[in-house]
Amino acid sequence: MRLGVVGLGRAASSMLPSLAAHPRATLVAAADPDPAARERFARDYGGATFPGAQALCRDGAVDAVYIATPHERHVADVEIAAAYGKHAIVEKPMALTLADCDRMIQAARRAGTVLVVGHTHGFDPAVMAMRDIVRRGELGALRMIVNVVYTDFLYRPRRPEELDTALGGGILYNQIPHAVDVARTLHGGPLRSVKAVAGAWDPARRTEGALAALLEFEDGAAASIAYSGYDRFDSDELTFWIGSSGARKGPAHGSARRALAAAQSPEAEARLKAQTGYGGSGVRAARGPAHQPHFGLLLVSCERGDMRIGPDAILVYGDDGVRHVPLPEGRAFPNKDNVVDELVNAVLNGTPPLHDGAWGRATLEASLAIVQSAHERREIMLREATVAGAR
Q1: Can you give the pLDDT at residue 245?
Q2: Strand residues in the chain grouped as ranges (E)
Q3: Can you give the pTM of this predicted structure?
Q4: DSSP one-letter code for 302
């Protein structure tokens, strides 16, 4: 499958090595309004470059696109891809409104193209393996999920709109959908309600940076999410000092705050943000993980045992102690490769993707309900997600 990339920002920087190395895909093109990013892509990958999505999608040498543009652009870029018959992977969140999700799903349906929503951590090999254990009933019914994530998210360089919740900024649109998607992937059934409390604790960065949420599924199972992006405690301390990508790391408490202090204005911070995009000086060299990727500390409790992610295996805690369930090795970017696998298998093999448009829409519905619950301080009942997007 011949792939093009729309948007050469930070998300694309982490995805490009996987796209280029995938055994069943070829990276052939990229689109971005920044000439320097296009020139860098041409040097690194030798593909064609274009200033925007429409020009790229006109290219008959492209079969599918990976869309990594800002959230508000997702709907238009998916519609452009579908209009030219291109299959698509779209970054999370799928969109900012359910109406936009509907437009995207309808565009792909009319065009007969495949749409995959790339909530990367829902594709983590450990999450998928735990999901299989749950579905086989090895430990009985799933009863509770606990996901604890503490990061430096709020103090990474941001453009002004990335610190405005109303424009899709902050953790509520950028991080919490990961946790919702992981919980839904593990359980597979419809959600009933959500209750959340969020905090915006830094007057200089007014978007929400912390959240505690409870998600209840229709069968009574629950998922508890605790997230803080305030760059103090780091939950990777609880996961063997292995980062979310699977690479080893060390303590760096408060380092993002200290680095950001050098930016004396929103314009200076935006320049720092630009450096984290593809080819920028702030991009860390891409490399395959030494261990399993993950999204914080994840504990899964079933009737007859508990599970968590270890460095290289799932740790299963039962009445007789702890056993290790090995995870597949040999892929440099396992969760990102799995995103591409879903698209390739759907297009070439006719295998329906798990994380399709309906799935992405249901994850967004739950995420929007979390935002509403946090702002209104009440439980929000879910309706549409109980019908669509459950697996």
Answers
A1: 87
A2: 2-6, 26-31, 48-50, 64-67, 87-91, 115-118, 142-150, 191-199, 210-217, 222-228, 297-302, 305-309, 313-318, 321-326, 380-381
A3: 0.91
A4: E
